[in-house]
Amino acid sequence: MGVAAKIAPSMLSSDFANLASEAQRMLDCGADWLHMDIMDGHFVPNLTIGAPVIESLRKHTKAYLDCHLMVTNPLDYVEPLGKAGASGFTFHVEVSRDNWGELVQRIKSKGMRPGVSLKPGTPIEEVYPLIEGEYPVEMVLVMTVEPGFGGQKFMPETMDKVRALRKKYPSLDIEVDGGLGPSTIDMAASAGANCIVAGSSVFGAPDSAQVISLMRKSVEEVQKNY
Ligand code: DX5
Ligand code: ZN
User: Fold this and answer.
1) pTM to 2 decimal places
2) Distance, CA 85 to ligand 1 centroid (Å)?
3) Alpha helices in the chain (DSSP H)
4) Which residues line ligand 1 (CB under 6 A)?
5) 34 sits in which H/E element
6) Secondary structure class of 25 (helix, strand, coil)
7) 211, 205 in Cβ contact below 8 A?
8) Where are the beta strands (DSSP E) in 128-180?
9) Is 15 in the active site?
10) Cβ contacts of 131 within 8 Å, gap of 6 or more
11) Among all ligands shown, which has an atom nearest to the Cα of 150?
12) pLDDT in tens, 114-156
């Protein structure tokens, strides 16, 4: 048996005015994690939520809050997000080339699980030192669209990076994010991804539970052969 499937609906596609009930609805539909997209309007053109919203949501759920930091200065977010009750803290390698060691240590000291993400144009080799270093990240998030917005088209060419990672690190959590749904999940699962973020395909479906279960089966089918 390989690594466990984690299906993480992206709350960016939810009704933010009803965040707590939307989160509960996803958990009732079988979600493992809730993916929280934190954007600063600088690293990406969009601006979403920050620690105060995570803190509010935490009062309503014990779920794993998988925070994806699309921000220029991730270090500034460690303390507030730790206090707010974030579970995972995934920063972007493009803005952390000089200080990832310190960043990972601080994330862990605040009780969060460190992860690193990379944009479609960033070579996979850039994250190897972060997996093999003294303070390793515990998840790699391979962006399958340009970060910033939900509802974009999945980029199949990013699957080469997932395949390379899975070959090198059989037990690593590998997350994919952007354009995932029933028509693209098999590409991601067969490349080796086990943590699946999906926004529009889950929230836009008449039966969200069915989409979550279909994606889980696709990952499990591949992982059971390891
Ligand atoms: C994009 C975000 C994603 C986004 C995914 O920058 O990181 O998490 O919400 O949305 P879909 O699944 O609609 O592509
Ligand atoms: Zn995301």
Assistant:
1) 0.98
2) 22
3) 19-28, 51-58, 75-84, 100-109, 128-132, 159-168, 185-191, 200-203, 208-223
4) 10, 12-13, 35, 37, 68, 145, 147-152, 177-180, 197-201
5) strand 33-39
6) helix
7) yes
8) 139-143, 173-177
9) no
10) 137, 140, 169, 172
11) 1
12) 999 999 999 999 999 999 989 999 999 999 999 999 999 999 9
